[in-house]
Amino acid sequence: MSDEYKPTVSERETEVQPRKGGKVKRHCLRFWWAYLIAFVCIVILVVCLIIFVGVPKIAQNKVNDATLEIDSIVASNTQSDNFTMSINSTIRLSSSTSATIDAFEGVMYLEDYLPHEPFLSLAFPQTTGDSFQVVNISQFTPITDMEGMTRFNTWLLLNDSIRVTVEGDTNIHVKGLSRAYPINFKKTVTLKGLQNFNGTTLPYSNVSLTADENGDNFHAITTVPNRSVVTFELGNVSFTSYLLGQEVGTTYMDNMVLRPGLNNFTTHANISQSAVLNALQMKPYCDQGGLLPFQLTGKDVVNNGQHLPYYAHALGAANQTIDIPIGFDLKRDHGIALNCKA
Ligand SMILES: *[C@@H]1O[C@H](CO)[C@@H](O)[C@H](O)[C@H]1NC(C)=O
Ligand SMILES: *[C@@H]1O[C@H](CO)[C@@H](O)[C@H](O)[C@H]1NC(C)=O
Ligand SMILES: *[C@@H]1O[C@H](CO)[C@@H](O)[C@H](O)[C@H]1NC(C)=O
Ligand SMILES: *[C@@H]1O[C@H](CO)[C@@H](O)[C@H](O)[C@H]1NC(C)=O
Ligand SMILES: *[C@@H]1O[C@H](CO)[C@@H](O)[C@H](O)[C@H]1NC(C)=O
Ligand SMILES: *[C@@H]1O[C@H](CO)[C@@H](O)[C@H](O)[C@H]1NC(C)=O
Ligand SMILES: *[C@@H]1O[C@H](CO)[C@@H](O)[C@H](O)[C@H]1NC(C)=O
Ligand SMILES: *[C@@H]1O[C@H](CO)[C@@H](O)[C@H](O)[C@H]1NC(C)=O
Ligand SMILES: *[C@@H]1O[C@H](CO)[C@@H](O)[C@H](O)[C@H]1NC(C)=O
Ligand SMILES: *[C@@H]1O[C@H](CO)[C@@H](O)[C@H](O)[C@H]1NC(C)=O
Ligand SMILES: *[C@@H]1O[C@H](CO)[C@@H](O)[C@H](O)[C@H]1NC(C)=O
Predict the structure, then answer these.
(1) Is the CB of 263 under 6 A from ligand 7?
(2) Please, which pLDDT band fits residue 1 given cuts at 50, 70 and 90?
């Protein structure tokens, strides 16, 4: 541009003259094209800023402000190396927008276990900018990180609540703009934990003095509370059973499918008779009529012939105390009442 225009001597002279208005007017007339170019450049810059910086920022902020709520998690068709994972969730936005978010592959990890190690991937479907929307996922899930999967189950089993983060990169399409903007979807949700099944009761049980054909001398219905939103297909679960610090046998719960709320499971066990009779004569149990505190630790989980270590190891991570009214059963069924030993 500077090549095209070189001020002449007469022009430079006019610059020092005091007729300001005339100078500006002439200047403008001469350089109208330069101003137009500058104006157009500014407009293009502003539009570019909006499209490349503003919209993505607004879109990302919108996604950041959204809340994800997990309504239910179902692990079904559980096998040794894979299962079907279904999640029903809700995404809420403060206001709806005309945008769509592409389907994406998200990962899930425990927020409070460092370093963050994704143990599951989730195929999120395409979602819209509606202020309230239901996102249901159901997918075949290979277990690629057995340790992470087991840790998740263990934490969920033992803690009052756990925080999990779901994260993934995807694109957002804003209505009226052909460009797709990359965004990061990252949400941390708090799930209620199972509190180690605290509050498990036996609404009914009976003892036999001799083992039946399966080798069992104890039968019961066990009511297990599930405080969380999870449904786990476990199958046949066995527990090592302890009484007063001593191993006294194995307890089995059959066909366990743990659902939210109270669950009844058929239970049978072979329990050392001598250990039980001995404990029933000890204080304070003999005074209470025979409610004995058993401790159970998960031993094995077998679902339709497949061992499920990611459940077995979680159930084996801690003891769960269950009060069993064996003394009452003995008295009711066999008329046996034991007194406190001297
Ligand atoms: C799922 O895992 C089981 C073993 O646990 C395996 O036999 C089966 O082939 C797997 N299914 C698929 C689809 O990979
Ligand atoms: C999600 O909702 C659908 C429809 O009500 C239901 O069939 C499905 O079992 C639910 N899945 C979960 C994980 O709760
Ligand atoms: C998703 O699950 C919820 C229940 O959790 C159900 O009401 C809804 O109908 C389901 N939607 C689809 C598309 O399956
Ligand atoms: C959850 O439980 C595990 C195992 O007991 C423990 O190591 C972990 O610190 C707990 N995490 C939270 C967040 O409570
Ligand atoms: C089980 O729950 C009861 C009542 O909520 C509480 O008092 C008790 O401390 C809990 N036990 C454990 C081991 O968390
Ligand atoms: C003992 O309890 C089990 C489980 O509830 C039941 O199936 C069985 O019939 C009971 N046996 C007797 C002798 O009452
Ligand atoms: C899980 O079980 C607990 C204890 O029975 C109950 O208070 C809670 O409402 C249940 N949770 C759901 C989601 O049903
Ligand atoms: C459970 O309790 C028994 C005896 O009280 C103990 O030997 C065992 O190590 C405990 N198991 C766990 C996982 O804490
Ligand atoms: C219970 O049965 C299991 C498996 O049959 C056996 O290993 C164990 O010794 C038995 N325990 C008692 C106390 O009878
Ligand atoms: C569990 O079994 C007990 C005793 O048979 C019964 O009173 C209760 O209603 C059952 N609960 C459920 C959730 O099935
Ligand atoms: C549990 O064990 C019983 C007896 O062995 C068997 O008939 C049943 O199919 C098993 N259930 C599961 C879910 O594996």
Answers:
(1) no
(2) very low
